[in-house]
Amino acid sequence: MALLSKKDANLILDPLADNNPITIQVLGICSALAITAELKASVVMALSVLFVLGAGNVVISLLRNVIPSKIRIIVQLVVVATLVIIVDQVLKAFAYELSKTLSVFVGLIITNCIIMGRFEAFALGNGPWKSFLDGIGNALGYGVILVIIGFFRELLGSGTLFGFPVLGDPVTKTGLYALGYENNGFMIIPPAALIVVGIVIWVQRSRNRTLIEEA
Amino acid sequence: MGLKEKLHTFRIKNQDKKWFPVFSGFHTFLFTPNETTHNGTHIKGADDLKRTMNTVVMSLVPCLIFGMFNTGYQHYLALGEIEPVANGFLSAGFWTMDNFLLGLWKVLPLVIVSYGVGLAIEFLFCVIKKHEIEEGYLVTGMLVPLIVPVDLPLWMLAVAVAFGVVIGKEVFGGTGMNILNPALTIRAFLFFAYPTWMSGDKVWVHGAVDTAGTADAISGETVLGSLAQGAEPSYSLMDMFYGFIPGSVGETSTLLILLGGLFLVFSKIASWRIMLSAVLGALSMGLIFNGVVDAGWIPEYSKFYALMSFEYWQHLLVGGLAFGIVFMATDPVTGSQTNQGKWIYGFLIGFLSVMIRVFNPGYPEGVFLAILLMNVFAPTIDHYVVRGNIKKRLKRLKTATIYPKASDEVDALKTETA
Predict the structure, then answer these.
(1) How far is it, in rounded angstroms, from Cα A190 to Cα B261?
(2) pLDDT (tens digit, 9 = 90+) per residue, A5-53?
């Protein structure tokens, strides 16, 4: 007996690859560009969105039959804002430095298109368990891309991963730096994230040609 | 059967092979176009892409050779081993074997890496995409070593070339489809990725980086660099014009760039409209700045004062402005296509180049940024030029008398006579 039925499993697995919110639907790009210069920030952002989207989808799904459709956007905003404030306060309390790095982008989770998109497209029409799986799946799909971008940007841009120097020390010239290697300053600035996202999309589509849109 | 026919049959036989584009690339490079004029003089020449590219490369060769001499000259001059030359362009003290050999030793690797990496990627993409190899990289590969500082580590150049060719060109569909000038994309990448090797007062003269901080330290400040710091440059006007100044490898000699530009204009490869309007743009921005200084609107302690009071026409002699205008702005793929558009496009390149170099001492070289920016706007400019033309002609149509079609008259005659 599998833990999840095939249909339910697809709710989680689809957004990870063939229906990824970032690379296929091209949603949530702003935060993907803004906070991925460090892997740590990417992971925290991914976790925050995981919490907000998972919990938010369940709440909206539970309320779906009592929300008047005329004001549903406002209700959705209230739910997501509440959850985001919780995340923001927790970060400020337990990881102050990190919350300063993420600055406004935690608050801007409210406007992340992925979240409103899942509320509108899924949670309003499905039960809480399915909505929960869908929320987790989409947040993971978002998180995976964030971590990939963060990995390359931090590795190439700063020579570190999670702040640990993995390529040697650029100041005392050890490791790779002894050979003349230097950090790529371009990877630190947001345009580099755009190009990394582009390359991820490129790789994904050349591996699975059915994803390529008709010209 | 001669070699030529043998190769031709070989080519036909192996059309389906994976490596065919590579073979075909070399074959077309050496043996096409195969047509020759047999009679009549009405056919002037078959200027294909290859011919165009070769013409540009030829016009760049003087800059490259000068760059080699200048590399050695600047190095020995900074070390104090030779005296500054003062007998004009042909001074014997400049054109020495020592200067050339050092330059050759430093510049040739840049050329080889640029062509090696760029062409390898180009070939790879042709094999994957199964299309003919295009000669688009020939000019880029020659431009790149000329617009980088001489001491740039080769691996950085290789990374940048790979980036520029793949992201700047191949993702858009290869030669002729790119939005941005690939050579400038490569320079922009280097500039933002490795700023310590692309700007400052050390990188422009060979040896200055290695000796920095030691007792033998030498300076390699460019004219614009010293102006940005408010210092008077120590080079004479003629030095700037001839190119006996520190700078990127091949962009210093305004004289040779001018000759190359004339060659391109007369062979009708590059657009004189873009060149002329870019020069006008640079002059007018320079004049505006000079005017602001003359009017006393800017105090002398301002950090822009030195650059703003720099004589307006001298902007054309320093930095990469002349090189950019002649060889980069005129790129037919990324520039404007319409004649009116070319005037606007060129003017704004000159205008913005001078503006960026004065107002942004962080980027004392505004030319590449200005050209890349205008590359992005070129299609928009063309769009509005074309729209304007359509509007004008529609207006003309309103007042025009439209005669009946000839075929209608024939029909009318037929019915009359029937």
Answers:
(1) 37
(2) 777 888 888 888 788 888 888 888 888 888 888 888 889 889 999 999 9
pTM listed for this prediction? 0.84
pLDDT(B48) > 80:
no
Separation of alpha carbons B196 and B356, rounded Å: 20
Contacts with B385 (C-beta within 8 Å, 6 or more apart), sequence order: B336, B338, B340, B341, B344
The whole-angstrom separation of Cα B86 and Cα B393 is 59
Q: Is A173 on the interface with B (CB under 8 A)?
A: no
Q: Per the CB < 8 Å rule, is A180 touching B155?
A: yes
In this complex, is the C-beta atom of A198 within 8 Å of any C-beta atom belonging to chain B? yes
Q: Among A184, A195, A206, pick the best mutation site for testing chain B contact (most B Cβ within 10 A).
A: A184
Mutate to test the interface with A, among B128, B177, B194 (most CBs of A within 10 A): B194
The Cα B165–Cα B126 span in angstroms is 13
Per-residue tokens: A104: 């406004």
Q: Which of B171, B193, B196 sits opposite A186 (nearest CB)?
A: B193
- Confidence category of residue B236, pLDDT binned at 50, 70, 90: confident
Please write down the long-range contacts of B80-83, taking CB distance under 8 Å and 24 or more positions apart: none
Interface of B with A (CB under 8 A): 153, 155-156, 159, 167, 171, 189, 192-197
Q: Hey, what's the torsion of the CAs at B181, B186, B187, B189, to 10 degrees? A: 120
Cα–Cα dist B118/B110, whole Å: 12
Q: Quote the CA–CA distance of A67 and A61 in Å, as a whole number.
A: 10
In terms of CA atoms, which chain A residue is nearest residue B152?
A180
**Running DSSP on this structure, what letter comes out for residue A186?**
G
Query: Strand locations in B38-181, DSSP E?
Result: none
**ipTM score assigned to the predicted complex:** 0.84
How many CA atoms within 13 Å lie on the side-chain side of B175?
A: 20
Lookup: tokens for A101: 């790095």
Maximal C-alpha separation, chain A: 65
Cα–Cα separations (whole angstroms), residue A19 to A13, A57, A122, B98, B397 = 9, 18, 14, 63, 52
Q: Are A193 and A149 in contact (CB under 8 A)?
A: yes
Cα torsion angle, B198, B200, B205, B206, sign: negative
Q: Measuring CA to CA, how many Å separate B365 from each of A27, A141, B199?
A: 37, 42, 9
User: A70-98 b/e with 16+ CB inside 10 Å = b?
Assistant: eebeebbeebbeebbeebbeebeeeeeeb
